Amino acid sequence: MNGPDTRDKRGFVGWLRSVPANIWVALVIAAIALIFVLQNRQKATIELFNISMSAPLWMTLLVTLLIGLVIGLLIRRNRRTGQRPR
Prior knowledge:
Helices cover 62% and strands 14% of the residues. It is of the alpha+beta class. The chain has two domains: 10-39; 43-86. The longest helix has 26 residues, at 57-82.
């Protein structure tokens, strides 16, 4: 019969070693992102043409990053479709 004693007995250290490297990298990046957000909570004013908006600095930088990512993906896709097949 399967009881609580049939569990893997590697312990906590064994469990930590079994976590894949990509999960560790994701956790480190998430921790850095959280620290970044907590340290950049002050307001920033953004002006574009005649429109003025106020938002937290971290949100402003995140939106800028996402806009850059979209632009990069669009350029990359255009380069791929512009290539001739061999």
